[in-house]
């Protein structure tokens, strides 16, 4: 590896670490997914069982174990806390930007590699998710790498004019299979489904010309299987097929039905990607159209990325459960296409379209207004309480949170970013424009995570989580009433129950309990439990905290 390239990688890793690692533990984990996954990892450590996933000490077959292995290792190092739960994704952020730089440099040159890394790291949701404790960043990276290595395999086998692709086809086929196996171990067989659908659409696009060798395809599947057998095979051999069977049933249900609160309108994912992948989503638009290509690989890789985008978005539009991160794999093609637009504009190989600057300014202004409105509303939130008719929301808004007004600088920074970026676009300084938009947006997210998110969280769940934390080490039961949360498990550091009755709400409310029970409910639901002998401890920010003592004998 040439020294300038190595220096760029090290510098990129340092900058990514500075953007993604600070403030990981500044705010509590959010229900449901963050706390759910962190609790699975905590129980993995608690039970010293690294092959079967549990939550509330019951089998949890919704996800494979790869991400939980990462989190449990992080918790061994940093302890059971928010920082440890989110640290694996911060590492994923660093690795992802380096991977994109290396891939972009191999595809075109160093400038494109930097543009692609900038586009990914400087767009809203791709950046934010590296500060989270959910599975998708690693799943997306592994799935993308599986497809990327298969593209390299295709190029090598079919004589594409690409320097640097100097290994034998079998090398790229095996590595594609290894990364596919890792993707399946991270989130399930949906990775293989997306991968095969993209290959199928490409096969159709190429007028049914076979672009791979069946022996190499078998080798890909063998590599995939060997990686996945480290869990699927071991779990089945150790405990029988029940757990894996339930896991596969859940995956099928996920694609055919939607859970409560997970339905959405038909174009849901396109709106999510347009806003969530700002500003890359808008700069990607011109690259969707036919352009002038400098080589076979230039055209071919762009086609692969466009196909990946449409397969992901159409598939998860068809799927009944619509959740924001389901379409997050599309961040890779979107950010590639955004980098592609800037790169081609700079080289005068594609005409700049003024509408892109206009649309970016409009959407950026809307996001900036929202950020400014958060501060403005927060400063006057108590005045707004009489106009809100939801009892729980009213109590949330009454939380004692200090806002100085300086938080509005986050929104102002985005305004400055939009203005300076637009000026650079009009001057046709496209590389400077890309740097302005993506670095500016990255700084906005960094500051929002440090300044705004912790204060907003105090209105929503902080009071309940602080109560759960106070129960750590106390010999008691803790649960919620009238709503579901994973927080009582993770934040009380719950131990495996000795009494199976403790799983039954009716027993906790009126049964012959063997230790005190704490209940957390909401102000608009507490009246539903008046008939039980519960002592109200206090109320805070919309939550009501109750206790039931052990009945006298």
From TrEMBL:
Its main location: membrane. Residues 63-231 form the Glycosyltransferase RgtA/B/C/D-like domain. It is found in: Cell membrane. GO terms for cellular component: plasma membrane. It is a multi-pass membrane protein. Keywords: Cell membrane, Glycosyltransferase, Membrane, Transferase, Transmembrane, Transmembrane helix. The chain crosses the membrane at residues 91-108, 114-130, 137-155, 175-205, 217-234, 268-289, 301-318, 324-343, 355-381, 401-423, 430-453. Coiled coil: none annotated. One of its GO terms (molecular function) is pentosyltransferase activity. GO terms for biological process: lipopolysaccharide biosynthetic process; response to iron(III) ion. This is 4-amino-4-deoxy-L-arabinose transferase-like glycosyltransferase. It comes from Chitinophaga polysaccharea. The lineage of its organism: Bacteria, Pseudomonadati, Bacteroidota, Chitinophagia, Chitinophagales.
């Amino acid at each position: 590896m040439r020294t300038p390239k190595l220096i760029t990688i090290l510098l990129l890793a340092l900058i990514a670490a500075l953007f993604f690692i600070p403030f990981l533990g500044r705010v509590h984990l959010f229900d449901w997914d963050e706390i759910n996954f962190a609790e699975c990892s905590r129980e993995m450590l608690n039970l010293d069982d690294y092959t079967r996933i549990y939550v509330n000490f019951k089998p949890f077959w919704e996800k494979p174990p790869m991400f939980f292995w990462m989190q449990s290792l992080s918790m061994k190092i940093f302890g059971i806390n928010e920082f440890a739960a989110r640290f694996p994704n911060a590492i994923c952020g660093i690795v992802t930007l380096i991977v994109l730089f290396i891939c972009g440099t191999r595809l075109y040159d160093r400038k494109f590699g930097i543009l692609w890394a900038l586009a990914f790291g400087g767009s809203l949701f791709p950046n934010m998710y590296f500060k989270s404790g959910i599975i998708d960043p690693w799943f997306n990276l592994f799935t993308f790498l599986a497809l990327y290595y298969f593209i390299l395999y295709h190029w090598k086998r079919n004589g594409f004019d690409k320097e640097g692709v100097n290994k034998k086809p079998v090398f790229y086929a095996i590595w594609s299979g290894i990364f596919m196996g890792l993707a399946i171990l991270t989130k399930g067989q949906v990775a293989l489904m997306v991968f095969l659908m993209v290959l199928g659409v490409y096969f159709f696009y190429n007028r049914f010309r076979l672009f791979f060798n069946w022996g190499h395809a078998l080798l890909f599947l063998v590599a995939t299987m060997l990686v996945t057998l480290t869990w699927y095979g071991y779990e089945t051999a150790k405990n029988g097929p029940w757990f894996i069977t339930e896991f596969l049933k859940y995956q099928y249900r996920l694609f055919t039905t939607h859970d409560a609160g997970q339905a959405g309108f038909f174009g849901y994912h396109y709106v999510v990607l347009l806003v969530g992948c700002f500003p890359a989503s808008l700069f990607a638009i011109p690259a969707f159209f036919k352009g002038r290509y400098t080589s076979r690989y230039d055209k071919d890789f762009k086609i692969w990325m466009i196909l990946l985008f449409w397969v992901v978005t159409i598939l998860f539009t068809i799927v009944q459960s619509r959740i924001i991160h389901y379409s997050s794999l599309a961040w890779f093609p979107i950010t590639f296409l955004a980098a592609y637009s800037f790169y081609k504009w700079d080289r005068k190989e594609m005409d700049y379209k003024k509408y892109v600057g206009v649309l970016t300014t409009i959407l950026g202004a809307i996001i900036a207004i929202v950020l400014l409105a958060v501060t403005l509303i927060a400063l006057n939130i108590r005045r707004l309480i009489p106009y809100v008719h939801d009892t729980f929301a009213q109590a949330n808004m009454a939380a004692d949170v200090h806002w100085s007004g300086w938080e509005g600088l986050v929104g102002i920074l985005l305004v400055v970013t939009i203005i300076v970026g637009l000026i650079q676009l009009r001057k046709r300084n496209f590389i400077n424009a890309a740097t302005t938009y993506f670095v500016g947006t990255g700084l906005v997210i960094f500051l929002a995570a440090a300044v705004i998110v912790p204060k907003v969280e105090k209105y929503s769940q902080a009071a309940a989580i602080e109560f759960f934390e106070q129960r750590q080490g106390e010999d008691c039961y803790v649960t919620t009433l009238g709503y579901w949360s994973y927080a009582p498990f993770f934040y009380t550091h719950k131990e495996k129950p000795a009494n199976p009755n403790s799983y039954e709400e009716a027993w906790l409310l009126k049964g012959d309990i063997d230790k005190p029970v704490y209940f957390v409910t909401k102000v608009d639901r507490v009246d539903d439990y008046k008939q039980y002998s519960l002592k109200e401890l206090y109320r805070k920010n919309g939550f009501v905290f109750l206790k039931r003592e052990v009945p006298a004998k």
